[in-house]
C-alpha cells in the first residue's frame, strides 16, 4: 500500500528527477509558451478576419439590396396565432387587445411630434417618395414625416378608448413593416395615385356575407399607405420614423361565429401568384355576445 501511494506521489512530483507530471519546469515553460503563442496567433487571425469583414460593411445600409422583396403587412393589437377572440359584454376578455393598441398608438400622439428638428409635415394628400439623401452618415439623422393618430378617426382610440371592442366592432391597425430603402409601388390605377391601398374580406366562401361592412381610416381619409413616408433610412439615420397606418373597423360582424378574414395590401410586388404570404394577413375573429356552457 505504501509503495503504491509512493508511486502515485512520484507521478505528481518526483523529487529525484524534479519532474511534475512527468515534465521538468523548463519543459512546462516551453510547452506553455508554445500554446500561448499558438492560440494568440489563431485569435489574431480570427480578429483580423472580423475587422476586414466589418470594413466592407456599412453601418447605415445593407451590403446587398439587389433582391429587395416587398415589405410584409402586420397589425396591432398583438394577438397570439392571429386570433381575435373576445366576449362583447366582458371587458376582461378584450382588455389585452385594448391595452396593446393603446401602447402602440401612443407614439403617434401629436405632442410627441412637435420637435421641428426631428419631424416635418409632408403634405395633406398622398404624394411621391420623400428623398432625404443617400444612405450614408454624411447628412446625419433625417427628419420624419408626422403622422397623427387623429388620421385613424374611429380607430384612433381618442373618442372610443376601447377601439370599438366594447360595441363588438373591433379595430385593427395595419402597417407595413420597416425595410431600409424600400419604395412601395402603387397599383397602376389612377384612383390609387401615390397610395398603397389595403382591403380586407372573407378568406373562405363559406364566410361570405358574415363579415359585414368594413370601414377604413388612414392618411387623408384614405385606406392605404401614402408614398411620402418612404423610404425608411434605418434606426441610426431615421430614429424618429413613424410608419403610416391604416385603421380597419369591423362594424357588423356576425356574432358567435368563427370567421377567417384576409387583409391584403395591393401594389407592385404584391401579386397573389408571387408569394402567398407577402403583404397578406389571415386573421381569425370570434365575437361572442351570448353565454355558452362552462364559459357562463
TrEMBL record:
It is found in: Cell membrane; Membrane. The chain crosses the membrane at residues 33-57. Its main location: membrane. One of its GO terms (biological process) is intracellular potassium ion homeostasis. One of its GO terms (cellular component) is sodium:potassium-exchanging ATPase complex. Keywords: Cell membrane, Disulfide bond, Glycoprotein, Ion transport, Membrane, Potassium, Potassium transport, Signal-anchor, Sodium, Sodium transport, Sodium/potassium transport, Transmembrane, Transmembrane helix, Transport. One of its GO terms (molecular function) is ATPase activator activity. It comes from the Eukaryota. It is a single-pass type II membrane protein. This is the non-catalytic component of the active enzyme, which catalyzes the hydrolysis of ATP coupled with the exchange of Na(+) and K(+) ions across the plasma membrane. PANTHER family: SODIUM/POTASSIUM-DEPENDENT ATPASE BETA SUBUNIT, SODIUM_POTASSIUM-TRANSPORTING ATPASE SUBUNIT BETA-1. Belongs to the X(+)/potassium ATPases subunit beta family. NCBIfam families: Na_K_ATPase_bet. This is Sodium/potassium-transporting ATPase subunit beta.
